[in-house]
Amino acid sequence: MEVHITSKQMVKPSSSNLHLLEPFQLSLLDQLASRYYTCSILFYAEPRADTSRFSGRLKRSLSDALAQFYPLAGRVKNNLFISDYDEGALYVEAEVKCRLSDFVGRAQELGALNQLLPCRPFCYVQDSNAPQLAFQVNVFDCGGIALALCGLHKMVDAATGFAFLKSWAAFNRGSSGEIPIPSMLGALSRLLPPIESMPENADLKSLFFGDGRRRVTRSFMFDANAIATLKLRAESKSLEHPSRVLALTAFLWKHAIRAGISVSGTPKPVFLCQPVSIRQRMRPQLPSYSIGNMFLPIFAKYNPAGQHIDQSELCVLLRQTAQSVPNNSQDVLQGFKTITEQVSQIAEMVSKGNANFYVLSSWLNTYEPNEDFGWGKPSLISIPEVDSNIPGLINWFFLKNTGAGRHNGIEVWITLSDKEMGFLEHDPEFLAFASPTPSFGKI
Protein backbone atom coordinates (compact mmCIF):
# COMPACT_ATOMS: atom_id res chain seq x y z
CA MET A 1 0.00 0.00 0.00
CA GLU A 2 1.35 3.41 -1.00
CA VAL A 3 0.47 6.48 1.07
CA HIS A 4 1.41 9.80 -0.53
CA ILE A 5 1.39 12.96 1.65
CA THR A 6 -0.13 15.80 -0.40
CA SER A 7 -0.12 18.58 2.20
CA LYS A 8 1.04 19.24 5.74
CA GLN A 9 0.32 22.37 7.74
CA MET A 10 -0.59 23.86 11.08
CA VAL A 11 -4.25 24.88 11.27
CA LYS A 12 -4.76 27.80 13.64
CA PRO A 13 -7.89 28.84 15.56
CA SER A 14 -10.27 31.11 13.64
CA SER A 15 -10.39 33.67 16.48
CA SER A 16 -7.84 36.49 16.30
CA ASN A 17 -8.22 37.51 19.95
CA LEU A 18 -6.81 34.45 21.69
CA HIS A 19 -3.47 36.14 22.37
CA LEU A 20 -5.33 38.37 24.84
CA LEU A 21 -6.30 35.41 27.04
CA GLU A 22 -4.45 34.37 30.17
CA PRO A 23 -2.38 31.17 30.21
CA PHE A 24 -4.53 28.08 30.79
CA GLN A 25 -3.52 26.20 33.93
CA LEU A 26 -2.94 22.46 33.95
CA SER A 27 -4.62 20.52 36.71
CA LEU A 28 -2.78 18.39 39.24
CA LEU A 29 -3.81 15.28 37.28
CA ASP A 30 -2.53 16.77 34.01
CA GLN A 31 0.84 17.30 35.65
CA LEU A 32 0.95 13.61 36.53
CA ALA A 33 -0.01 12.45 33.02
CA SER A 34 2.61 11.19 30.56
CA ARG A 35 3.37 12.71 27.17
CA TYR A 36 2.23 10.35 24.43
CA TYR A 37 -0.28 10.41 21.60
CA THR A 38 -3.38 8.29 21.87
CA CYS A 39 -4.62 7.54 18.37
CA SER A 40 -7.68 6.18 16.63
CA ILE A 41 -8.77 5.95 13.00
CA LEU A 42 -12.30 6.48 11.72
CA PHE A 43 -13.09 4.86 8.36
CA TYR A 44 -15.83 6.38 6.17
CA ALA A 45 -16.91 4.38 3.13
CA GLU A 46 -18.94 7.20 1.52
CA PRO A 47 -17.32 8.61 -1.66
CA ARG A 48 -16.30 12.28 -1.71
CA ALA A 49 -18.04 14.71 -4.05
CA ASP A 50 -15.51 17.50 -4.59
CA THR A 51 -11.95 17.15 -3.34
CA SER A 52 -11.16 20.87 -3.25
CA ARG A 53 -14.34 21.80 -1.33
CA PHE A 54 -13.93 18.78 0.94
CA SER A 55 -10.41 19.83 1.99
CA GLY A 56 -11.14 23.52 2.46
CA ARG A 57 -14.28 22.88 4.48
CA LEU A 58 -12.52 20.45 6.81
CA LYS A 59 -9.76 22.96 7.57
CA ARG A 60 -12.20 25.82 8.14
CA SER A 61 -14.33 23.74 10.50
CA LEU A 62 -11.20 22.54 12.31
CA SER A 63 -10.16 26.17 12.76
CA ASP A 64 -13.58 26.98 14.23
CA ALA A 65 -13.40 24.04 16.65
CA LEU A 66 -9.92 25.10 17.76
CA ALA A 67 -11.29 28.54 18.59
CA GLN A 68 -13.83 26.86 20.91
CA PHE A 69 -11.22 24.57 22.49
CA TYR A 70 -8.42 27.15 22.30
CA PRO A 71 -6.15 25.56 24.99
CA LEU A 72 -5.74 22.53 22.71
CA ALA A 73 -4.25 24.81 20.03
CA GLY A 74 -1.53 25.99 22.44
CA ARG A 75 1.60 24.40 23.84
CA VAL A 76 2.31 23.03 27.31
CA LYS A 77 4.89 25.08 29.22
CA ASN A 78 6.94 23.83 32.19
CA ASN A 79 4.29 21.25 33.10
CA LEU A 80 2.28 24.14 34.60
CA PHE A 81 0.22 25.94 31.97
CA ILE A 82 -0.65 26.31 28.28
CA SER A 83 -0.01 29.41 26.18
CA ASP A 84 0.73 30.32 22.53
CA TYR A 85 -2.81 29.53 21.42
CA ASP A 86 -2.06 30.59 17.86
CA GLU A 87 0.32 27.64 17.31
CA GLY A 88 -2.55 25.41 16.16
CA ALA A 89 -2.98 21.72 15.36
CA LEU A 90 -1.09 19.59 12.86
CA TYR A 91 -3.21 18.78 9.79
CA VAL A 92 -2.01 16.33 7.13
CA GLU A 93 -3.71 15.21 3.91
CA ALA A 94 -2.71 12.04 2.07
CA GLU A 95 -3.73 9.89 -0.88
CA VAL A 96 -3.82 6.12 -0.48
CA LYS A 97 -3.26 4.08 -3.65
CA CYS A 98 -5.83 1.36 -3.11
CA ARG A 99 -9.51 0.89 -2.39
CA LEU A 100 -10.68 1.29 1.19
CA SER A 101 -12.50 -2.06 1.18
CA ASP A 102 -9.35 -3.83 -0.04
CA PHE A 103 -7.19 -2.20 2.63
CA VAL A 104 -9.58 -2.96 5.49
CA GLY A 105 -10.65 -6.45 4.49
CA ARG A 106 -7.21 -7.79 3.67
CA ALA A 107 -5.50 -9.85 6.39
CA GLN A 108 -2.52 -7.74 7.48
CA GLU A 109 -0.57 -6.57 10.50
CA LEU A 110 -1.94 -3.76 12.65
CA GLY A 111 1.25 -1.87 11.80
CA ALA A 112 -0.21 -1.07 8.37
CA LEU A 113 -2.58 1.34 10.13
CA ASN A 114 0.37 3.40 11.35
CA GLN A 115 0.95 4.62 7.79
CA LEU A 116 -2.32 6.53 8.08
CA LEU A 117 -1.18 8.50 11.15
CA PRO A 118 0.45 11.95 11.42
CA CYS A 119 2.59 10.89 14.40
CA ARG A 120 3.89 7.82 16.19
CA PRO A 121 1.20 6.29 18.41
CA PHE A 122 1.48 5.44 22.11
CA CYS A 123 5.16 6.41 22.30
CA TYR A 124 6.81 8.87 24.67
CA VAL A 125 7.02 12.37 23.14
CA GLN A 126 10.28 14.15 23.91
CA ASP A 127 9.49 17.36 21.99
CA SER A 128 8.25 19.90 24.54
CA ASN A 129 6.73 21.97 21.72
CA ALA A 130 4.74 19.12 20.18
CA PRO A 131 1.18 19.99 19.09
CA GLN A 132 -1.55 18.69 21.36
CA LEU A 133 -3.71 17.62 18.43
CA ALA A 134 -2.69 16.06 15.11
CA PHE A 135 -4.90 14.78 12.29
CA GLN A 136 -4.36 13.00 8.99
CA VAL A 137 -7.09 12.80 6.35
CA ASN A 138 -6.42 9.81 4.08
CA VAL A 139 -8.40 9.63 0.83
CA PHE A 140 -8.50 6.24 -0.93
CA ASP A 141 -8.79 5.67 -4.69
CA CYS A 142 -12.47 4.79 -4.29
CA GLY A 143 -13.18 8.04 -2.43
CA GLY A 144 -13.33 6.39 0.98
CA ILE A 145 -11.82 8.31 3.87
CA ALA A 146 -9.73 7.32 6.89
CA LEU A 147 -9.57 10.12 9.44
CA ALA A 148 -6.71 9.63 11.92
CA LEU A 149 -7.04 11.40 15.27
CA CYS A 150 -4.12 11.87 17.66
CA GLY A 151 -4.31 13.66 21.00
CA LEU A 152 -1.40 14.32 23.35
CA HIS A 153 -2.44 12.64 26.59
CA LYS A 154 -0.84 15.42 28.62
CA MET A 155 -4.14 17.31 28.37
CA VAL A 156 -6.40 15.22 26.14
CA ASP A 157 -8.27 12.37 27.78
CA ALA A 158 -10.98 10.42 25.93
CA ALA A 159 -13.81 12.76 26.90
CA THR A 160 -11.86 15.88 25.94
CA GLY A 161 -10.83 14.40 22.60
CA PHE A 162 -14.33 13.24 21.70
CA ALA A 163 -15.91 16.54 22.78
CA PHE A 164 -13.52 18.31 20.42
CA LEU A 165 -14.30 15.84 17.65
CA LYS A 166 -18.03 16.41 18.15
CA SER A 167 -17.56 20.17 17.82
CA TRP A 168 -15.41 19.81 14.68
CA ALA A 169 -17.90 17.46 13.04
CA ALA A 170 -20.82 19.79 13.84
CA PHE A 171 -19.06 22.78 12.31
CA ASN A 172 -18.19 20.71 9.23
CA ARG A 173 -21.86 19.73 8.77
CA GLY A 174 -22.84 23.38 8.97
CA SER A 175 -24.27 23.09 12.49
CA SER A 176 -23.18 24.82 15.68
CA GLY A 177 -20.18 23.30 17.43
CA GLU A 178 -20.05 25.99 20.10
CA ILE A 179 -19.42 25.12 23.75
CA PRO A 180 -22.49 25.84 25.93
CA ILE A 181 -20.58 27.34 28.89
CA PRO A 182 -17.02 28.38 27.86
CA SER A 183 -16.04 29.09 31.47
CA MET A 184 -16.28 25.34 32.18
CA LEU A 185 -13.26 24.64 29.93
CA GLY A 186 -10.95 25.19 32.89
CA ALA A 187 -13.17 23.69 35.60
CA LEU A 188 -10.78 20.84 36.45
CA SER A 189 -7.74 23.07 37.00
CA ARG A 190 -9.82 25.22 39.36
CA LEU A 191 -10.86 22.17 41.39
CA LEU A 192 -7.40 20.56 41.32
CA PRO A 193 -4.91 23.40 40.79
CA PRO A 194 -1.33 22.59 39.76
CA ILE A 195 1.64 22.61 42.10
CA GLU A 196 4.85 24.45 41.30
CA SER A 197 7.03 21.34 41.37
CA MET A 198 5.89 17.76 41.04
CA PRO A 199 7.63 15.24 43.34
CA GLU A 200 10.43 13.39 41.58
CA ASN A 201 8.77 10.09 42.39
CA ALA A 202 5.55 11.11 40.59
CA ASP A 203 6.70 9.94 37.17
CA LEU A 204 4.70 7.34 35.29
CA LYS A 205 7.12 7.39 32.36
CA SER A 206 9.36 4.61 33.70
CA LEU A 207 6.32 2.38 34.28
CA PHE A 208 4.34 3.03 31.11
CA PHE A 209 7.06 2.91 28.49
CA GLY A 210 9.33 0.25 27.06
CA ASP A 211 12.23 -1.37 28.83
CA GLY A 212 14.13 -2.32 25.67
CA ARG A 213 12.31 -5.60 25.02
CA ARG A 214 10.86 -6.11 21.56
CA ARG A 215 7.07 -5.69 21.80
CA VAL A 216 4.20 -6.57 19.53
CA THR A 217 0.52 -5.63 19.40
CA ARG A 218 -2.29 -8.03 18.55
CA SER A 219 -6.05 -7.64 18.57
CA PHE A 220 -8.61 -10.19 19.76
CA MET A 221 -12.40 -10.35 19.79
CA PHE A 222 -14.51 -11.67 22.65
CA ASP A 223 -18.08 -12.35 21.52
CA ALA A 224 -21.15 -12.09 23.75
CA ASN A 225 -21.15 -15.82 24.56
CA ALA A 226 -17.51 -15.77 25.64
CA ILE A 227 -18.12 -12.76 27.88
CA ALA A 228 -21.22 -14.34 29.45
CA THR A 229 -19.19 -17.46 30.30
CA LEU A 230 -16.36 -15.37 31.77
CA LYS A 231 -18.88 -13.56 33.98
CA LEU A 232 -20.15 -16.91 35.30
CA ARG A 233 -16.60 -18.09 36.01
CA ALA A 234 -15.84 -14.88 37.88
CA GLU A 235 -18.76 -15.26 40.30
CA SER A 236 -18.03 -16.07 43.94
CA LYS A 237 -19.58 -15.60 47.37
CA SER A 238 -17.73 -12.30 47.62
CA LEU A 239 -18.88 -11.11 44.19
CA GLU A 240 -22.19 -12.46 42.93
CA HIS A 241 -22.69 -10.36 39.80
CA PRO A 242 -19.43 -9.19 38.22
CA SER A 243 -19.75 -6.81 35.28
CA ARG A 244 -18.56 -7.84 31.83
CA VAL A 245 -15.68 -5.33 32.08
CA LEU A 246 -14.57 -6.69 35.44
CA ALA A 247 -14.77 -10.32 34.31
CA LEU A 248 -12.83 -9.66 31.10
CA THR A 249 -10.21 -7.54 32.89
CA ALA A 250 -9.56 -10.35 35.38
CA PHE A 251 -9.31 -12.87 32.53
CA LEU A 252 -6.80 -10.74 30.59
CA TRP A 253 -4.72 -10.04 33.67
CA LYS A 254 -4.69 -13.73 34.60
CA HIS A 255 -3.34 -14.80 31.22
CA ALA A 256 -0.80 -11.97 31.09
CA ILE A 257 0.50 -13.16 34.46
CA ARG A 258 0.73 -16.73 33.15
CA ALA A 259 2.60 -15.50 30.06
CA GLY A 260 5.03 -13.55 32.24
CA ILE A 261 5.73 -16.56 34.44
CA SER A 262 6.30 -18.77 31.39
CA VAL A 263 8.97 -16.39 30.09
CA SER A 264 10.75 -15.52 33.35
CA GLY A 265 10.30 -18.93 34.96
CA THR A 266 9.65 -17.27 38.31
CA PRO A 267 6.42 -15.97 39.84
CA LYS A 268 6.72 -12.39 41.04
CA PRO A 269 4.31 -9.70 42.28
CA VAL A 270 2.22 -8.14 39.51
CA PHE A 271 0.49 -4.77 39.38
CA LEU A 272 -2.39 -3.72 37.16
CA CYS A 273 -2.89 0.01 36.65
CA GLN A 274 -6.34 1.15 35.53
CA PRO A 275 -6.91 4.84 34.76
CA VAL A 276 -10.41 5.39 36.21
CA SER A 277 -12.45 8.34 34.97
CA ILE A 278 -13.63 10.67 37.74
CA ARG A 279 -15.51 13.01 35.38
CA GLN A 280 -18.91 11.51 36.23
CA ARG A 281 -17.95 10.79 39.84
CA MET A 282 -17.11 14.39 40.73
CA ARG A 283 -19.68 16.45 42.60
CA PRO A 284 -20.71 18.56 40.83
CA GLN A 285 -20.24 16.58 37.62
CA LEU A 286 -18.04 18.20 35.00
CA PRO A 287 -19.16 18.38 31.35
CA SER A 288 -17.40 16.43 28.61
CA TYR A 289 -15.88 19.62 27.19
CA SER A 290 -14.02 20.50 30.42
CA ILE A 291 -10.43 20.09 29.30
CA GLY A 292 -7.96 17.81 31.05
CA ASN A 293 -7.17 14.33 32.25
CA MET A 294 -10.04 13.51 34.56
CA PHE A 295 -8.81 10.10 35.59
CA LEU A 296 -6.96 8.65 38.54
CA PRO A 297 -4.53 5.74 38.22
CA ILE A 298 -5.48 2.93 40.59
CA PHE A 299 -3.16 -0.01 41.25
CA ALA A 300 -4.16 -3.58 42.04
CA LYS A 301 -1.47 -5.94 43.33
CA TYR A 302 -1.44 -9.75 43.13
CA ASN A 303 1.14 -12.28 44.31
CA PRO A 304 0.92 -15.43 42.16
CA ALA A 305 2.22 -18.69 43.57
CA GLY A 306 2.49 -20.31 40.13
CA GLN A 307 0.60 -20.86 36.88
CA HIS A 308 -2.67 -21.65 38.68
CA ILE A 309 -4.48 -18.34 39.16
CA ASP A 310 -8.03 -18.00 40.45
CA GLN A 311 -9.91 -15.64 38.15
CA SER A 312 -12.67 -14.99 40.70
CA GLU A 313 -10.01 -13.97 43.25
CA LEU A 314 -8.64 -11.43 40.76
CA CYS A 315 -12.17 -10.09 40.22
CA VAL A 316 -12.67 -9.46 43.93
CA LEU A 317 -9.26 -7.79 44.16
CA LEU A 318 -10.02 -5.51 41.20
CA ARG A 319 -13.44 -4.63 42.58
CA GLN A 320 -11.99 -3.70 45.97
CA THR A 321 -9.36 -1.51 44.31
CA ALA A 322 -11.95 0.31 42.17
CA GLN A 323 -14.10 1.06 45.21
CA SER A 324 -11.32 3.22 46.64
CA VAL A 325 -11.70 5.88 43.91
CA PRO A 326 -12.75 9.25 45.43
CA ASN A 327 -15.72 11.25 44.15
CA ASN A 328 -14.80 14.80 45.16
CA SER A 329 -11.87 17.12 44.64
CA GLN A 330 -10.87 17.30 48.33
CA ASP A 331 -10.42 13.53 48.54
CA VAL A 332 -8.39 13.60 45.31
CA LEU A 333 -6.10 16.29 46.70
CA GLN A 334 -5.67 14.46 50.00
CA GLY A 335 -4.95 11.16 48.24
CA PHE A 336 -2.49 12.54 45.71
CA LYS A 337 0.52 11.96 47.97
CA THR A 338 -0.49 8.31 48.35
CA ILE A 339 -0.64 7.94 44.56
CA THR A 340 2.87 9.39 44.09
CA GLU A 341 4.24 7.12 46.81
CA GLN A 342 2.64 4.10 45.13
CA VAL A 343 4.15 5.08 41.78
CA SER A 344 7.59 5.42 43.35
CA GLN A 345 7.44 2.06 45.14
CA ILE A 346 6.13 0.17 42.11
CA ALA A 347 8.66 1.79 39.77
CA GLU A 348 11.51 0.74 42.06
CA MET A 349 10.28 -2.86 42.19
CA VAL A 350 9.81 -3.05 38.42
CA SER A 351 13.20 -1.45 37.65
CA LYS A 352 14.93 -4.09 39.79
CA GLY A 353 13.06 -6.91 38.08
CA ASN A 354 11.13 -7.74 41.23
CA ALA A 355 7.64 -7.13 39.82
CA ASN A 356 5.69 -6.93 36.56
CA PHE A 357 3.47 -4.00 35.64
CA TYR A 358 0.44 -3.86 33.31
CA VAL A 359 -1.92 -1.09 32.19
CA LEU A 360 -5.54 -1.48 31.07
CA SER A 361 -7.49 1.31 29.34
CA SER A 362 -11.07 1.12 28.17
CA TRP A 363 -13.69 2.94 26.10
CA LEU A 364 -16.38 0.61 27.39
CA ASN A 365 -19.27 2.37 29.11
CA THR A 366 -17.64 5.73 28.43
CA TYR A 367 -16.95 7.33 25.06
CA GLU A 368 -16.27 6.31 21.50
CA PRO A 369 -15.62 8.48 18.43
CA ASN A 370 -18.60 8.03 16.13
CA GLU A 371 -19.10 11.44 14.56
CA ASP A 372 -20.76 12.37 11.27
CA PHE A 373 -18.76 15.01 9.37
CA GLY A 374 -21.39 15.06 6.64
CA TRP A 375 -20.31 11.72 5.22
CA GLY A 376 -22.44 9.56 7.52
CA LYS A 377 -21.28 7.65 10.58
CA PRO A 378 -17.94 5.86 10.37
CA SER A 379 -18.14 2.30 9.07
CA LEU A 380 -15.27 1.17 11.27
CA ILE A 381 -13.21 2.53 14.16
CA SER A 382 -9.78 1.04 14.74
CA ILE A 383 -6.74 1.47 16.96
CA PRO A 384 -3.18 1.29 15.56
CA GLU A 385 -0.41 -0.71 17.14
CA VAL A 386 2.19 0.66 19.50
CA ASP A 387 5.21 1.77 17.45
CA SER A 388 7.89 -0.82 18.20
CA ASN A 389 10.80 1.31 16.94
CA ILE A 390 10.93 3.79 19.84
CA PRO A 391 10.03 3.67 23.57
CA GLY A 392 6.29 3.03 23.71
CA LEU A 393 3.61 1.54 25.93
CA ILE A 394 4.24 -2.07 26.93
CA ASN A 395 2.16 -4.61 28.87
CA TRP A 396 -0.91 -2.68 27.75
CA PHE A 397 -4.53 -3.70 27.17
CA PHE A 398 -7.11 -1.56 25.43
CA LEU A 399 -10.83 -2.41 25.33
CA LYS A 400 -13.60 -1.10 23.06
CA ASN A 401 -16.97 -2.28 21.86
CA THR A 402 -17.08 -4.21 18.60
CA GLY A 403 -18.76 -2.65 15.60
CA ALA A 404 -22.37 -3.25 14.60
CA GLY A 405 -23.06 -6.80 13.52
CA ARG A 406 -20.16 -8.21 15.53
CA HIS A 407 -22.29 -9.94 18.23
CA ASN A 408 -22.10 -7.06 20.75
CA GLY A 409 -18.71 -8.26 21.82
CA ILE A 410 -15.55 -6.54 22.98
CA GLU A 411 -12.37 -5.96 20.99
CA VAL A 412 -9.09 -6.00 22.88
CA TRP A 413 -5.71 -4.68 21.74
CA ILE A 414 -2.82 -6.26 23.65
CA THR A 415 0.81 -5.11 23.63
CA LEU A 416 3.34 -7.46 25.23
CA SER A 417 6.93 -8.52 24.72
CA ASP A 418 7.27 -10.80 21.69
CA LYS A 419 8.00 -13.83 23.90
CA GLU A 420 5.00 -13.27 26.15
CA MET A 421 2.76 -12.67 23.16
CA GLY A 422 4.05 -15.89 21.64
CA PHE A 423 2.90 -17.75 24.75
CA LEU A 424 -0.48 -16.00 24.76
CA GLU A 425 -1.16 -16.77 21.11
CA HIS A 426 -0.69 -20.48 21.81
CA ASP A 427 -2.47 -20.61 25.17
CA PRO A 428 -5.48 -22.94 24.59
CA GLU A 429 -7.39 -21.62 27.61
CA PHE A 430 -7.00 -18.04 26.36
CA LEU A 431 -7.95 -18.96 22.78
CA ALA A 432 -11.07 -20.77 23.99
CA PHE A 433 -12.54 -17.31 24.59
CA ALA A 434 -10.44 -14.94 22.46
CA SER A 435 -10.60 -14.96 18.67
CA PRO A 436 -7.60 -13.40 16.88
CA THR A 437 -8.77 -10.73 14.42
CA PRO A 438 -6.85 -11.29 11.17
CA SER A 439 -7.94 -7.99 9.62
CA PHE A 440 -9.15 -4.58 10.76
CA GLY A 441 -12.82 -5.39 10.20
CA LYS A 442 -15.42 -5.00 7.49
CA ILE A 443 -16.62 -1.87 5.69
From TrEMBL:
It comes from the Eukaryota. Keywords: Acyltransferase, Transferase. Pfam families: Transferase. PANTHER family: F21J9.9, STEMMADENINE O-ACETYLTRANSFERASE-LIKE. Belongs to the plant acyltransferase family. This is Uncharacterized protein. It comes from Hibiscus sabdariffa.
